[in-house]
Each structure stands twice: as C-alpha cells, then as structure tokens.
Amino acid sequence: MTADLVLYGYWRSSAAYRVRIALNLKGLAYESRAVHLVKDGGEQHSDRYRALNPQELVPCLIHGDQVLTQSMAIMEYLDDAFPASPLLPNDAGGRARVRALAQLVACDIHPIGNLRVLQYLGSHFNADDAVKGEWSRHWIGEGFKALETMLASSAQTGRFCHGDTPSLADACLVPQYYNATRWKLPMDAFPTIQRVVDACNALDAFAQASPEAQPDAPPSH
Amino acid sequence: MTADLVLYGYWRSSAAYRVRIALNLKGLAYESRAVHLVKDGGEQHSDRYRALNPQELVPCLIHGDQVLTQSMAIMEYLDDAFPASPLLPNDAGGRARVRALAQLVACDIHPIGNLRVLQYLGSHFNADDAVKGEWSRHWIGEGFKALETMLASSAQTGRFCHGDTPSLADACLVPQYYNATRWKLPMDAFPTIQRVVDACNALDAFAQASPEAQPDAPPSH
C-alpha cells in the first residue's frame, strides 16, 4: 500500500491522536504505521525511526518528500497545505486564542506527563504507579483548572473550544481528556471541558481517531 | 505611560524572553511590566495577574483589547498582525520545519524544567539544587541532542536555524540556550546550536531582549 500521507504513531500517544483528529477533520486519507512505544524498549528508539525523527518521539507525518515532526507543527502544516476545512479561525485574534488554548495543553500539560518523564521519575526517584498518578493528576489538574476558566469565561467559546467549528484546540483537548481519564482525574470541576469533549466525541472525525479505534490497539487493555 | 503593546514578563523567564526577541525582530516598541515570579510567593499568582492569565504564567501580551497568552501563540499573532519582518518562511514546508524546531524547545524542553516543576520536585521528592540541576541538564541535553542532529543534517539550516533570517525557531533556541548555561550544561556536543546562538546574539534584537538587559533584572545576580 502506498499513500500520499503516512502517519507514524501509536494508538495511545496523545500527540499522534491529535494529528489523527486533524487529518480526519480535513477528510484526508492516510496510511497508519505503528511505532510501539513500549515493546522491546520502544521502537521509537530504533535506528530506523530515529532517521525519521531524531527526537525519537511520535508522531511523524510523511507527505511526499516532506518529513514532518511535532504534532502542533504538523497540524499547522495540514492547514497550510490543505486549506479546506480550516483548523484555525479566519481572524488573527481568533487564531491567537485557539493556538493559546492548544498550547496550554501541548506545552504546559502533556510534555510533563509524557511516558519518558514518567520513566525518569521511576528510575531516578523510585516513583511507583501511585506517585506517577499523583504527578499526572497534579499537572493535568493545574492545566484544566486554567483551561476551564478560559473556556467558561469567554463569549468566544461555543459548542467547541472556539465557536461552533472544531479547531486545533479541540484536537489537543480531547486526547488530553482521554489521558486524564486514564489517570482517573475527577472531572466535576471542569463542566465546560466535559461539555466540549462530549460534543467532539459525537463527531466521526474524533471517534475514528480514538486510541481504541486504531489498528495497533490491543484487543483488550 | 500608555503603549499599544504591553508585555507582562520577567527578566529571566524563557517564554517572556522569546516574545521580547520577536517584538524586537519586528521593530515593535512595547511597554514592559515586570511580574516577579519569586517575590512574595510569586506575583503571577496574584488575583490581578490571574485575571489576565488564568494559567498564572508569564508572558502575557496586551494589544489594544486583546489579551494574549502562550508565547508561541503570541509570536504567531505578532506575525499575523504585523506582517513586516516575518518570523516564518513563506513556504509551507519551511514553516513546518521552523515550527517543529521551535516546538521541540517550547513543548519538549522548556516546560519540563520550568520553575513550577522544579518547585514540585523540591516539595514532593525532596530534590535539592544538585538534583534539580541533573534533571534540568538531562531534559535540555535530550532536546539539544535531537536539535543538533536536525540542524546539522539539514541543508535548510543557514546562519540561523532556517536559512539566513532569524525566525520563531531562533527566538525559542536562544532563551533555552541561556537557560542551559545557567544549569552548566556542557555545549561541546552541540557545535551547530552554539554557532547559531552566537549569530543570533550578535544582533541587537537578541541582545536587547536578553535577561540582563531588562529593567527588572537585579544589578548583580
């Protein structure tokens, strides 16, 4: 099988999940190639994958001769290269708001709780699963508290994070919410986040991007 | 004093430093308002500042009635609102590369070593300055190793991260380099990073954005 767009990802990677949502929202078909993040010490550390992405992280998107890394840069690229069904609003202020909401998740929540950081907490601080859970809930909770305020207090919030069209912000929020539920973060304090996530997950573009819907997801987990 | 652009920042904040570079590269005058991140438990946690940025982080840029947060979103906004002296190349592939290099720093290095994370390591893992230093050098080193490979192996790298014009990527790299030297990360393994940083710091736009050049920098530290 050859495809114009090839996505290297992992079913449960938050960053790969974002890009799947963006591809689906734009109606772009792609070939999915799994990079198992845990098996054999992690396929992302293989020479073959490192040649694509020296950061040894997923996702990586191939488009023709372009090798694209960093999920936020990839989603912006998709909006640049395939302008239909834009992921950003058409005014500078709206774009700034959507990018800020997206980056609140992509910069200030997700990287702190990423697999490699949890592995380091285990190896250097003897953190067990309970301590890793406390760490994860703390940072997701801090971020969601701010995000809830920003969403609930703005007239620009609509059915989705920004108005009634899903954007880059929703593509970041939904995977982070999925991660939060894995860590059993109570959601009572985040009604607006919950409402927006529910609206997103009612759409095929989001549902089909979910970890459980991926070919590399284990039958049960 | 009134100003069209008001930047809330802190002399040594990496994220505020990025935005100062971007403002200077575009030749935009701005009023600087200091938010002391340490004094009295941190002015970023005050009610007054939280009303501007519920994340309680710097920077925050005010432009007319726009309140902008997240340094990457702010820099993209500046490029949107003030197109002269662009911070991104004019081709989609180039923009994706610059954004990926910028986000490597902004997502995968900086947030993991940010003040609030180091404070948490101290309060929850009894990490002292030596352990915080080891943590910081580890994550900056991981990121710089990948960044060095990406810069050294690409024909698109020029005098700066992308060609011969400073971009969003340089605006992220220079503050992260400054932070790396604070933590005494050896730079021998990163000759391309070193060369690019030196080229940047030879420009007024970068020099005038440096922490030591800010009005709120202490006389000696």
From TrEMBL, chains A, B:
Domain of life of the native organism: Bacteria
EC number: 5.2.1.2
Major enzyme class: isomerase
A cellular-component GO term for this protein: cytoplasm
Cross-referenced Pfam families: GST_N_3
Matching InterPro entries: Glutathione-S-Trfase_C-like, Glutathione-S-Trfase_C_sf, Glutathione_S-Trfase, Glutathione_S-Trfase_N, GST_Zeta, GST_Zeta_C, GST_Zeta_N, Thioredoxin-like_sf
Molecular-function GO terms, alphabetical: glutathione transferase activity; maleylacetoacetate isomerase activity
Domain called GST N-terminal: residue spans: 3-86
Coiled coil: none
A GO BP entry: glutathione metabolic process
The GST C-terminal domain, residue ranges: 91-219
SUPFAM superfamilies: GST C-terminal domain-like, Thioredoxin-like
Keywords: Isomerase
CDD domains assigned to the protein according to its UniProt record, in alphabetical order: GST_C_Zeta, GST_N_Zeta
Family: Belongs to the GST superfamily. Zeta family.
UniProt name for this protein: Maleylacetoacetate isomerase
Gene source species: Dyella soli
